[in-house]
Amino acid sequence: APGPEAMAVAGGETDRIYHCLDELEKDRAAAVRGAYLNGESYAELAERHKVPLNTMRTWLRRSLLKLRECLER
What we know:
CATH topology: Arc Repressor Mutant, subunit A
Strand content: under 5%
Radius of gyration: 12 Å
């Protein structure tokens, strides 16, 4: 499935994506940007944020759900 940035570009919704990212906790938003906008691996992000890989996966999964909810409002 395309990442949120692909959906954003398709819908011209970049501003809404960034607004919704601002609703996330700072470290979660940074992780989402790293993974989906900069193409960093989950392992790289886990190392940078000093959390286990599974924690990073959980952050990203939950953050994407929150983003989707925000965009569907």
